[in-house]
Design brief:
Order of helices and strands: HHHEEHHHEEEHHHEEEH
Distance between the termini: 48 Å
CATH superfamily of the largest domain: GAF domain
Strand content: 15-25%
Low-confidence stretches: none
Radius of gyration: 21 Å
Strand order of the largest sheet: 5-4-3-8-7-6
CATH class of the largest domain: Alpha Beta
CATH topology of the largest domain: Beta-Lactamase
Number of helices: 10
CATH architecture of the largest domain: 2-Layer Sandwich
Helix content: 40-55%
Number of strands: 8
């Protein structure tokens, strides 16, 4: 009986530690999403759905470990210096950011619009980097660090279309409520049609589904193991996607996709 009690206590302790870690990571992600503006304690309490004492206790621990810092003037919370150090080290490990730099520069120069690199992380995708084009009228909807559910936006559509049919069904089941709640302009009912069009065309087109007037076109990249590795996107205002320009932009993306996948072959060997 004592052994059973000890085992039960250990399992409960592990579950509690895991929950604490999950909550702390969620706070870091919320602060990251706020970008340079930071978040007040009241914002974090509301967004995280935690009590004020719990939120404050987690923030103190995150500050002690350099993951979060607090502006002493306005009391808002921002990412700490340790997150930057982690990012630098991670960039060395996941070389897609470095490998794609030339591709983003070429896409921005050729198109005149913003070129972006994104990666899939579970049921979400994250924008890693953005290269501005020369066209003065720009869409600023997507910025580095922004996270969206797979299925939303051009990159999200490219990612979900690259999945198997069974994986698509699972992804839609997980993300359905979030797509409806957070993306009211997104045609959730038409998503399967858009997936089929993406597969047929070889590129994903977001014709203002997420934010009216903000368009994007994207292609998914595969590594030598045939895993979806990342996505390249060209984003701009609606007027930049008229006539035959969608096909022109798609050709640019597909060309860079081919070049970048060839470069990935030299970094990631097939298993």
């Amino acid at each position: 009986m004592t052994d059973d009690n000890d085992r039960g206590d250990a399992e409960r302790g592990a579950a509690s530690a895991s929950q604490t870690l999950d909550r702390a990571i969620h706070l870091v992600r919320l602060i990251s999403a706020a970008r340079g503006t930071g978040l007040a304690l009241s914002d974090l309490v509301r967004l995280a759905g935690l009590t004020k004492p719990t939120t404050r206790r987690l923030l103190v621990s995150l500050i002690d470990n350099g993951m979060v810092e607090q502006d002493l003037e306005n009391r808002r919370y921002h990412l700490g210096p340790e997150t930057y150090a982690f990012g630098v080290i991670a960039a060395e490990r996941f070389g897609i950011h470095r490998l794609a730099a030339d591709s983003l520069a070429r896409l921005a120069a050729l198109s005149g619009d913003a070129a972006l690199l994104s990666v899939q992380r579970g049921t979400e995708w994250v924008c890693l980097s953005r290269e501005e084009g020369s066209f003065p009228l720009r869409s600023h909807v997507l910025q580095p660090g922004d996270r969206h559910p797979v299925g939303a936006g051009a990159a999200g559509l490219a990612f979900i279309a690259a999945l198997s049919d069974d994986e698509i069904a699972e992804m839609l089941a997980v993300n359905a409520d979030r797509l409806v709640a957070d993306y009211p302009g997104h045609p959730a009912d038409a998503l399967r049609r858009l997936i089929a069009e993406t597969r047929a065309n070889g590129y994903a087109l977001n014709s203002g589904y997420v934010i009216k007037g903000s368009w994007g076109i994207a292609v998914a990249l595969r590594d030598p193991r045939s895993h979806t590795h990342a996505a390249l996107t060209i984003a701009g205002v609606e007027s930049r996607f008229t006539g035959g320009r969608v096909e022109e932009l798609a050709a640019m993306l597909i060309n860079e996709k081919t070049l970048l996948e060839q470069r990935l072959c030299g970094v990631i060997q097939p298993s």
